[in-house]
Design a protein that fits this description.
By secondary structure, the protein is α/β, with parallel strands linked by helices. It folds into two domains: about 300 residues, Mur-like, catalytic domain (UDP-N-acetylmuramoyl-L-alanine:D-glutamate ligase); about 140 residues, Protein-Tyrosine Phosphatase, Chain A. Helix content is about 40%, strand content about 20%. The chain has 15 helices and 17 strands. The strands form three sheets. The chain has an eight-stranded mixed sheet, sandwiched between helices. A six-stranded mixed sheet has the order 12-13-17-14-15-16, sandwiched between helices. Strand 7, helix 8 and strand 8 form a beta-alpha-beta unit. It is globular and about 65 Å long.
Length: about 450
């Protein structure tokens, strides 16, 4: 599957097996005590570099990768922590814009492993897997050492393990309903939790939000005396033109205008993520009328930006796209991009979702742009049974527009066949397939098409 040595991957699997004995990322006990205790033992590595902290519901990873690309092109050494991973755990911890090696991942874990039992013994609840991974990332970045940490929130904000970092810049991507079993179903309440990453005196960059969420975020900024800038007000996308392989943007930053910016990613949501990333980097350097970033450096950075598993093309003839949309908000953004930027004669979706996700919302968002759907399951033990998913899909698509294929590889093969088939059964060109519904589904599909973790 990858170019890594078998021995290194085996050691990585062993470490992952040990980490998987801990609470998974889907189970939390709201407290920063455990991660603070580990960080204290390690010498507070997260305090040894400035941090750009990125929270929200959708777009966090893409925005993080763009911030990383900009900072790297400008000349800083970066550490980037994102979650979840698509294919390999090493994707979560990147230095110099690339995932650390399996050998380094294992080394970092073994370095901090002796201290985990000390923290575990101090309380009733041992450290979760995500808390350990966060400690590993903080330590890896301090060891590198990096000039700046680009840190993505795992879930929520206030109680997320990443929140012991003191972000001088806080970025809040669009907030929607997700993880309702942990964060609740009230948008204002979710925004309150996510607003917790906005620290006293920080600069807060806000994506466009629903009024209920925006009100909460602005109140938090006022309470902690944070400087606030909003997409569509202080910065934004002036112009967006669809181009081959992506889009060309004219962006209004905090410190000036940046034109002829090619972004090799699809969708208006990615243009908004680019504006957010640009403003975050400007804020990091102290944006002002005379502090505009070098326009050519910005162009070069965005031209190299990647976001695996986000409307990523993994095959042509027919085109197969992979997208990690796993909630209704993400599925709506995906559907809009498919409708606006791709002219498929026929589009077939392969959908595999997790048990706890809003399958109705995801399928309903996709239905207007998809002619047929193939329902399947991904490799996660939490994957929704395809037959149950079919029961959800019938009222939305009708039985004539859906197929059930329990295994993802078979599902993709079936979708390709359907995409190439005309109404009278002939094989014709112009069809497309999109594989979506979960980060795990996207990662599994990437692996099936031979894509390397990145």
């Amino acid at each position: 599957m990858t170019g890594f040595e078998t021995g290194a991957l085996e050691e990585l699997r062993q470490v992952e097996s040990e980490l998987n004995t801990r609470w998974p990322e889907t189970k939390i006990e709201p407290s920063l005590d455990r991660i603070r205790a580990l960080a204290d033992i390690l010498g507070d590595p997260q305090a040894s570099y400035p941090v750009v902290h990125i929270g929200g519901t959708n777009g966090k990873t893409s925005t993080s990768r763009m911030v990383d690309a900009l900072l790297t092109r400008i000349g800083l050494r970066t550490g980037r922590y994102t979650s979840p991973h698509l294919q390999l755990a090493t994707e979560r911890i990147s230095v110099d814009g690339a995932p650390i090696s399996p050998e380094r991942y294992v080394e970092i874990y073994r370095d901090i492993e002796p201290y985990l039992s000390i923290v575990d013994a101090r309380g009733d609840v041992p450290m979760s897997k995500f808390e350990v991974l966060t400690g590993m990332a903080f330590a890896a970045f301090a060891d590198a050492p990096v000039d700046v940490g680009v840190i993505e929130v795992g879930m929520g904000g206030s109680w997320d393990a990443t929140n012991i970092a003191d972000g001088r810049v806080a970025v809040i991507t669009p907030i929607g309903l997700d993880h309702v079993e942990y964060l609740g179903g009230d948008l204002a309440g979710i925004a309150q939790e996510k607003a917790g990453i906005i620290k006293p005196g920080a600069v807060a960059l806000l994506a466009k939000q629903e009024p209920a969420a925006e009100q909460v975020l602005l109140r938090r900024c006022a309470e902690v005396d944070a400087t606030v800038a909003r997409l569509g007000s202080e910065f934004g996308v002036i112009q967006r033109d669809v181009a081959v392989g992506g889009q060309v943007l004219r962006l209004q930053g905090l410190a000036g205008e940046y034109d002829e910016v090619f972004l090799p990613l699809h969708g208006a949501h990615q243009a908004a993520n680019a504006a957010l990333a640009l403003a975050a980097v400007e804020a990091f350097f102290g944006a002002g009328p005379d502090r505009q970033l070098d326009v050519e450096a910005v162009r070069e950075a965005f031209a190299t930006a990647t976001s695996p598993g986000r409307l990523e093309r993994v095959r042509t003839a027919p085109t197969v796209l992979v997208d990690a949309a796993h909630n209704p908000h993400g599925a709506e953004a995906l559907a809009k991009a498919l409708d606006e930027e791709f002219g498929f004669r026929k589009l077939v979706a392969v959908v595999g979702v997790m048990q706890e996700k809003d399958a109705v919302g995801i399928l309903s968002a996709l239905e207007p742009v998809v002619q047929e759907v193939v329902l399947t399951a991904n490799s996660s033990p939490r994957a929704m049974d395809p037959d149950l998913l079919a029961g959800v899909a019938i009222p939305i698509f009708g039985e004539d527009r859906m197929v059930v294929q329990p295994h993802l590889d078979d599902a993709i093969e079936e979708a390709v066949r359907l995409a190439e088939e005309s109404d009278d059964g002939d094989i014709v060109s112009g069809g497309g397939v999109v594989v979506t519904g979960s980060v795990v589904t996207a990662g599994d599909a990437r692996a099936l098409f031979g894509k390397e973790p990145s």
